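Notebook entry, cofactor series.
This is the third protein in the set we're modelling with a bound small molecule. For this one the ligand is MTE. I'm keeping the input format identical across the series so the outputs can be compared line by line later. Sequence and SMILES below, as received.
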Amino acid sequence: MLRRPTDPRVEANPERLPPGQVLTEKWPVLHYGRVPTYELDRWRLRIFGEVARETTLTLAEVLALPSKEVVCDIHCVTTWSRFDNHFEGVPLRHIAELAGVLPEAAFVEFHCYGGFSTSVPLEVALAEDALLTYRHDGVPISQEHGYPLRALLPRKYFWKSAKWLEAVEFRAQDQLGFWERNGYNNSADPWREERYW
Ligand SMILES: Nc1nc2c(c(=O)[nH]1)N[C@H]1C(S)=C(S)[C@@H](COP(=O)(O)O)O[C@H]1N2
Ligand SMILES: [Mo]
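Returned structure with ligand:
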């Protein structure tokens, strides 16, 4: 991670880099536990909880859903930020509509390979830039970055962007996730430096 105080994008707009963050060009790989290798014909995405229609999708079905591109900056709690990421995927809004999210739902919990989980308030998941993403900068999300599907919640520190997603649960009450139980701030707003408890 190189400190680049002279990066033209930061010079042009110093506010763009949240407090305490350092710009990086590379995309570091960070997670707890090992990287899964899925047999893709067995991978499923399950959508459940406070919904009218519990739904299970194959990868082909996920890829066939309406998609959009989000260009965003990502901010990791370990202080690296990476600008201008092009992500493509299904808006979480669309997933909520598909399953018929109920009025009781107020949080979304992401369940991943190996028991990893994280959560956000419903309004964060329904924001325009919140995706289930399968492409980054024009290529499929790589194995170590969450293939075949990960969450993208660019308004939050990047640990909320769960890799190797297996289920999306709409919940009435919040449920602390893996990092949140281990000292990370559940709100995770990079602009307010909500890093740890
Ligand atoms: N399934 C899973 N997703 C995860 C994690 C993890 O341990 N398991 N770590 C989070 C953390 S702490 C970070 S910083 C980002 C890193 O994403 P990257 O490796 O694509 O940069 O993934 C997040 N998503
Ligand atoms: Mo992280």
